[in-house]
Amino acid sequence: MTWPNASRDHETSCVSCHTALPYALARPALRASLHESETTTTERRLIDNVTKRVRLWKEVDPFYPDQTSGLPKTSESRGTEAILNAVILATRDAHAGTASDDARAAFDNLWALQFRRGDLSGAWAWLNFHYEPWESGDAAYFGAALAAVAVGTEPEAYAARADIQPRIKALGAYLQRSAATQALFNRAMVLWAASRLSGILSDAERQSVADALWAAQQPDGGWSLSSLGAWKRIDGTAIETQSDGYATGVVAFALQQAGVSPTEPRLSRALSWLTEHQETGTGMWRATSQNKQRDPATDIGKFMSDAATGFAVLALTQSQLPQTRPSAGPP
């Protein structure tokens, strides 16, 4: 929020998939483990930033306007932000146990931008800067999965509202019709989405995703992001193949959301990997870019580790909760 590159108009900042979103998802989940009763100052600042942009939706500029970033960045920015705003505010509402007017406004913005025809029917425009895994040609699927998570997370039975059923049906159809051909990373995301919003995947499809994720697990119990997609670095350097905090956190969290018990031996090994690989000095988990070799001491070099830390926290805190969903794997 203080990084100059993320500064936007109306004294707001860009909400990023690599840092702000994982933080917004993970920090509330960490509260119980820390025996906290109040949100932190940083959380409140982030939520204030999001709600301000939701309330000023027709006034704030897109994250990346066409005029400075080229076509179709305005459309991509609006679709991306609409989804991120909805999932962040729905997460806040879920932890508070009550729906908010700001979240409902965010969902109104979201549905207004949903495509109604074409290959992306049911989904949204999504930023594509040719950076994997969040800002690439196939990242619209990632965004649509997040939208489903948001809808299924908002409390007070938001997903059951009659007026949005056609929208939800279109979203589910989009996610289902290409699930089998998506990179394993996106399939992990839709497994999470299917645990929040019914009708996206059948039991057999959920099991198929889980089986593919188990098959990619490394001997040390973790996962490598490089095994979850066919990605190549643009600078020609070799992608790291060892287990990393982001892939392990995402997969372990998604499998738990799908109903796999943390005591299941393979998942237990993954959670142990996370426990053993937190850095003692910084508290973070490490992950590296799939796009180019980055200096880990720079802000950009920390992006993947920001995401890794958020999802490691989600996986580890989820393991402390009762498991109530159908299992996606043998007990």
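[next item in queue]
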Amino acid sequence: MCIILVAWRTHPGYPLVVAANRDEFFARPTATAGFWADHREVLAGRDLEGNGTWLGITRRGRFAALTNFREPGSRQVNAKSRGRLVADFLTGQTQTESYLKTAAADAERFNGYNLLVGDGDSLAWFSNVTGGGKLLPPGIFGLSNGLLDTPWPKLTAAKSALVSALEALPQDDKFFELLRDDIIHPDEILPRTGVSLEWERRLSATFVRAPGYGTRSSTLLTVNTDGIAVFDERTWLESGTAGPRRRFRFRLEGTGSS
């Protein structure tokens, strides 16, 4: 399933760096990244089934991203779409810490998730699995489909690779290399999350490939100290070959001349 890596205020030139893969069924209708027609300040892809999104940023620097929590035995059939949480934060004006309280109040209406939200001044994590959240200090963080920084093999490897990629900025090749890592990790170190061993193996890769399911997009988001945001989304076909690519570069509002 998905993976999100975040470097928050650890690089002298880039206060926010996000590298992420979205894993999903290829049959689920999806729009590639773009500024939304109904909320023109929001830049994100769009899940056309639930009308939410998995990762996005606004022209004012509001950021949000989400992963599902893997617990197949606890799935609610009629739960609300988790992607709405990201969309609601991006289209709203609630401050980061206040949004954690909003999410907590509505937590039981969703299947398990991890949510990252930031307003440029702060970054926070919340999970409805634990019912708790927190503001994050400067550091490198990772989410897959456990809780924040759960040391699954692919997350540990990806966070290590992120450190090397950060050193190469503004070059971005290393970020997409780590997001394209399709190594299957050994059985003895895999988590046991309630899916079959065959699926634990497939999902142990950063870049997932399975019949009808897999990594559908890789996204790199950077915001530098001059307020320049770059949002680069590379999409993938079911064969694992590259699909359309969308790249946006813009100055965040309120950070200087355009």
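[queue empty]
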